[in-house]
Specification:
It contains eight helices and eight strands, in the order E-H-E-H-E-H-E-H-E-H-E-H-E-H-E-H. By secondary structure, the chain is α/β, with parallel strands linked by helices. It has a single domain, classed as Rossmann fold (3-Layer(aba) Sandwich), CATH 3.40.50. Strands 3-2-1-4-5-6-7-8 form an eight-stranded mixed sheet, sandwiched between helices. Strand 2, helix 2 and strand 3 form a beta-alpha-beta unit. 46% of the residues are buried.
């Protein structure tokens, strides 16, 4: 399948990060499904995206339906909801690529989480029927919704045990205006997830909300 033909579901997609990613992919020509525990909330978010872009690129539905209808799913939920959503969607995710953007870091007390990473937990629970990719844990949500026609000043680490799935996500990062870098298997995702605690600490100290990571010395 051509990557542009992918139908992308953003599960738990009504928050700032999910909406930002959805906006950028919809603007790049992808069909987007916004998923939520409440279908009405997802529909409202999809309508807002369509209105902002003046196109009909997004639809909204309950998370389970969104996962079943999509080719690739991106999960953007708070850490407290992470494993419950994985359990709820296990059957709907079979045969899919799941991009897990969960960072188990508390904004109030940012500390690196213990292993295994959220994405590795997802892979272990879902089994080989789902190809899990860890990505977008560190991207500042505030950067995603600004200047949609301009690149995002943030690089994305992409971790997966499946190279084909990782390469698809790297292309999605590029479509959203970011550079994606393959950063090893899912075992490495705990390091990427932990970087979120550093970025939050930087944001707090310098009174900003958009600290991000850039890689030098290599072009993806």
């Amino acid at each position: 399948m051509n990557n542009k033909q992918l139908k992308i579901a953003i599960l738990g997609g009504t928050g700032k990060e999910g909406t930002g990613l959805a906006l950028r992919w919809a603007a790049a020509g992808y069909k987007i499904i916004i998923g939520s525990r409440q279908a009405e909330k997802a529909e409202m978010a999809a309508k807002a995206i369509n209105a902002q872009l003046s196109i009909e690129a997004a639809s909204g539905m309950e998370n389970n339906d969104a996962a079943r209808q999509a080719d690739l799913c991106v999960m953007t939920v708070i850490q407290a909801a992470h494993m419950q959503m994985i359990a709820d969607l296990k059957d709907a995710l079979k045969g899919k690529i799941l991009v897990d953007a969960t960072a188990r870091v508390d904004f109030r007390d940012p500390r690196p989480p213990g292993p295994p990473s959220a994405a590795q937990q997802s892979q272990e629970y879902l089994g080989p029927d789902v190809r899990v990719v860890a990505a977008f844990e560190n991207v500042p949500a505030s950067r995603l919704t600004k200047s949609l026609d301009q690149p995002v000043d943030a690089d994305i680490f992409v971790c997966s045990d499946d190279m084909e799935a990782a390469e698809q996500v790297i292309m999605l990062a590029r479509a959203a205006g970011m550079r994606g870098f393959y950063a090893g298997g899912l075992v490495n995702a705990i390091v990427v997830e932990s970087l979120t605690s550093i970025l939050i600490s930087i944001n707090k100290y310098y009174h900003v909300n958009n600290a991000s990571i850039r890689i030098s010395g290599v072009e993806p």
